[in-house]
Each structure stands twice: as structure tokens, then as C-alpha cells.
Amino acid sequence: MLCSAYVGLNGATPSLAETVIADRPGFSTGTYTVEPGHFNVELGYEASFSNSGASRTTHTAPLTDVRVGVVPEMEIDLMWSGWSIDRVAGNSSTSTSDMAIGGKYRLVSQPQYNITALGALSLPTGSTASSGEMNPTVALIWDYVLSDSVTAFGMAQIASSVESADRHYNFQPAVGLSFDLTDKLGTFVEFYSDKQLMSHTQRSDMMDTGITYLLTDSTQLDFSVGLSLDNRSDDFVGAGIAMRF
């Protein structure tokens, strides 16, 4: 999964610039960009479980995102989803994901709301069925502070991929709420859809939720769970760590 959710800490608040503000976990990406002279290393593990009737599980690690601050409004991202081990009816196969390069640019930065543009390009470096082509992704990400402890967030994303020599474009919106429970503990709930444009294929709908814990000012831990709302998408559980340097 390319993008992950913005939870726990509100990137709109300047006083939080000295703490790690992670993009993981989840589908949506945060509006916050890493400040110049610093970088984040965000790592994760995910196990997914098929709802298609096949006895299939997939273990993926390390979900990697290295975020480098360039200017106050912009960061560069280097992303890799690592290795995946698929287990189907007792048989296992291993594949590597494509690497991707991208970035975020803050278009609007206000105390109560933010709008950020995201762009990424996956490179044909992996061995998955979707590898072999360069695939772009573009998105607009937003957040809106509802109260001192509640923030609404979401994204509108278009991702391109090639399947069976045909290029497809998918619209992937997400919307959710994040809650600051304490200065260190946060949680979120998010709804995500994936629909192929100009196609009669069925839409994929997911719900995910999770918690984040600020272990230190520079280290955040997280745990998340995702559930299919259409009985076709995979359910998943995941955990990760984000470190600021």
C-alpha cells in the first residue's frame, strides 16, 4: 500500500515540529511535511487475509517510507513495500515490491485546516505481477481541526497501473477522524474505497482503525486493523514504527 493514514498528532500545529509526525498507519497520507534538515524513517509489517474463499494469507515487510525535508512546504519520499510471502493451501511464494519515489507539497497551511498535494512514481524494480511498468499516483490530501482533540482528514487519489498489458486508472478516496486521547496516545477510524475508472468492475470498500503511541519525541509506535466492507477485499493487521532524525 502506497499511502498511509495521518493520525494522533495534528501536523497543523507549529509547536509539534520538534516531534515525529508519521504518515503511517492506514490508507490516507498526512498533510504534514518533514521540516528541512530532518528526515523520517517509517517501517511496518502487515498480514492480510483473503475473503475470496481461497485459504490465502500474505505477510509483507518492511513497509518502508523515508521522508526527507527539502523546504518548509516540501518533502521527498522514497518508498518500498519490501518482500511479500503468499501462502495458499499450504504452498508459499515470495515476491518483491516495486520501489517508488515521490513527494508532498503543502498548498494551504492554516491553523484550522491544511491541503497538501502528493505525487509518486513507482519504478519497475520488483517481481510482483504488477511490476514491469512505471506507475504514477497523484492525490490531494486535507485535514480540518474540529476541536482540540479531534481532526477530520481525507484524500482524493488517482493511481495508475498496468494489468495484462492494459493501463488502468483507479480513483481511491478516503475519509476519517483522528483523536488525541492523551499527549502520547492517539487513535483513528477511516473509510477507504478503490474504484477502477471507465470500468464496470466492482468497487472495493474498506474500514480501518488503529492506535499510535509517542514513545519519545522522535519515535512513534502504531498498530492497526483493516476490515473489508464488501467481503472481497483482504482483511489485515499491521504494526510499525516511525523515527525522526
Tally of domains: 1
Please state the second-level CATH architecture: Beta Barrel
Helicity, as a percent range = under 10%
Can you write the helix and strand succession as a string?
EEEEEEEEEEEEEE
Class in CATH? Mainly Beta
Class inferred from helices and paired strands? mainly beta
The description of the largest β-sheet is: 12 strands, antiparallel, barrel
CATH superfamily: monomeric porin ompg
Mean pLDDT: 90
Q: How many helices does DSSP assign?
A: 0
Q: Spatial order of the strands in the main sheet?
A: 1-2-3-6-7-8-9-10-11-12-13-14
Number of strands: 14
CATH topology: Porin
Binned strand content: over 45%
What would you call the shape? globular
Rg measurement, Å: 17 Å
> What separation lies between the terminal Cα atoms?
24 Å
Poorly predicted regions are 1-16
In summary, what is this structure?
This protein has 245 residues and is mainly beta.
Describe what you observe in this structure:
The protein has a 12-stranded antiparallel beta barrel with strand order 1-2-3-6-7-8-9-10-11-12-13-14. The chain has a single domain, classed as Porin (Beta Barrel), CATH 2.40.160.40. It is mostly beta strands. Helices cover about 0% and strands about 60% of the residues. About 35% of the residues are buried. The radius of gyration is 17 Å and the shape is globular. Strand 2 (about 55-70) and strand 3 form a beta hairpin. Mean pLDDT is about 90; it is low at about 1-15. The chain starts with about 40 loop residues before the first strand and ends with a strand.
